[in-house]
Amino acid sequence: MPTPTFDHLAPEKKDRITTALLTEFSQYGLADAQVARIVTAAGIARGAFYKYFADLTDAYQYLYGVALSEIHQAIPSEARNGDLMTDYQAVVQFVDQVSNSRYYRLIQRHFTQNESLVPAPPLAPATMPATAWAAMVLSHATIKEILLAPDQQAAALQRLRTALAALAS
């Protein structure tokens, strides 16, 4: 996560750095990303980068978190209420939001190159009901499948709908 120094930057400078990160991580996988290109694009010193982030992985995780937050915020809360069949609608809306966002290439590259290079997100709590857990896993797998093979979107969504209906019964 970024340092408190980054958190206290002027919004314009923070936006400039975030945009530079987005450009870099949309064009290059984490393994090929370079601090030199980021600092040049952001107009900051190399040392400043390390005052804001521990390393490239830290900067990537920050940006990926920003992307997911922005995309999730655009999905109406009623589509995220935990009902199994509305989970389907949330997936459809998430895919639409990603496809029409400036983060599309970043998230696509996450699944093709970066997912194995960053720490895994926390596991679902053991107290999560089995059906909710299954719906979450199926939803995330469907999103990944659609981003990796957009031409298979209709089939992936139909399979998800069928699976969620089976879970609901």
Automatic annotation (TrEMBL):
Q: Where is the signal peptide?
A: none
Q: In which residue ranges does the UniProt entry place its DNA-binding region annotation?
A: 34-53
The transmembrane segments are none
UniProt KW keywords:
DNA-binding
* Keyword field contains DNA-binding: yes
All copies of domain HTH tetR-type, residue ranges:
11-71
Q: Name one GO molecular function term.
A: DNA binding
Question: What protein is this chain from?
Answer: Transcriptional regulator, TetR family
Q: List the source organism.
A: Levilactobacillus zymae
